[in-house]
Amino acid sequence: MRTDTPQPIRLADYAPYPFAIDTTDLEFNLDPTATNVRTTLKVRRTGEANAPMVLNGENLELVSLTLDGTPLDDHAYVLDEKP
After folding, report:
1. Residue 39 CB contacts under 8 Å (≥ 6 apart), including other chains
2. How far apart are CA 24 and CA 51, in angstroms?
């Protein structure tokens, strides 16, 4: 659980996200000790060509990432505790 105060995002600091998510498919595997969620996103770039895709999540464990059906190795993305 977070204990720090969230920082406001001011309109002057806002920039549109450089990607559009057209579809989101969620598959849940419910278990009393651990729930697994498989998420499939159909994403397209709508902004700057070099802008990175940033996904935020809390209290989640990343199991794997794939791009167009190909698993990404650990060097293909950055996983941070907090942005």
Report:
1. 24, 25, 26, 27
2. 21
* 52-68 mean pLDDT: 88
The CA distances from residue 7 to 20, 57, 76, in Å, are 25, 16, 29
**Token pair 């942005």: residue:** 83
Sketch the domain layout of the chain as residue ranges.
15-75
The residues, any chain, with a CB within 8 Å of residue 35's CB and separated by 6 or more, are 28, 29
- pTM value is 0.65
| Beta carbons of 22 and 40 less than 8 angstroms apart | no
Over residues 7-59, the pLDDT tens digits come to: 888 899 888 889 999 999 999 999 999 899 999 999 999 988 888 998 888 88
- Strand pairing partners for 26? 39
